[in-house]
Hints:
Strand content: 15-25%
Strand order of the largest sheet: 1-4
Order of helices and strands: EEEEHH
Low-confidence stretches: none
Mean pLDDT: 86
Amino acid sequence: MSGKWLPFELAWYDTRIFNCSFCGIMMAREYWVDDEFPGEMFCEDKCADVKRRVRAEFAEAKAAGRVEEARHGEETGDV
């Protein structure tokens, strides 16, 4: 796992809401940017780890021919 914490640099009156790319929780002060998932913001480094693990399990299921399990990820874009 490699990445870094970055603060949100917003004006006090900015009303935008940012959510974790994996779990959807609302983030307020800072977010995790993971080198493996450019352009995505995570509430914790653990969310990036879980996404990494899920992606690996999906690839393994697809390679093993467990299509029904793998197909769900393709439909939802969780690949």
